[in-house]
Design brief:
By secondary structure, the protein is of the alpha/beta class. It is 17% helix and 30% strand. It has a 6-stranded mixed β-sheet with strand order 2-3-4-1-5-6, covered by helices on one side. The protein starts with a strand and ends with a strand.
Length: 115
């Protein structure tokens, strides 16, 4: 199973203070929108998402179809196939992707497919 890029999505109290903190660790803004209170930051292959007011707890995030530079992968495991695999292993999902659509849905472990 190919899950794509991995990052940690952090629930932060102050997006501006968090941005400065992670910049001091060598991270640079890669994507996002400070006014909408979310940023994706990168240091080499390490990715973190900073999210103010979007969710309560930190989340492990996978992006099927993308590498760590947001390039589309030639081969990846579709989010609905990942869901079927997890359900077959009796993993309880908080929310499920609609298997009849082409779009993703979120889970506690976020599998966030963009293609």
């Amino acid at each position: 199973m190919t899950l794509g890029a991995f990052s940690v999505s952090l629930s932060v109290k102050d997006i501006n203070a968090s941005k400065v903190f992670y910049e001091n660790l060598g991270f640079e803004v890669f994507a996002g929108d400070l006014e909408k209170k979310y940023l994706i930051m990168k240091n080499g292959n390490a990715l973190i998402g900073l999210f103010q007011g979007m969710f309560e707890n930190n989340i492990s995030t996978f992006n099927p179809g993308w590498d760590e530079n947001a390039n589309t992968l030639d081969a990846y495991t579709d989010v609905r196939d990942i869901q079927k695999h997890l359900k077959g292993k009796k993993v309880k999902l908080e929310r499920e992707a609609d298997e009849n659509t082409s779009g993703p849905d979120g889970n506690t472990i976020l599998i966030d497919q963009h293609v």
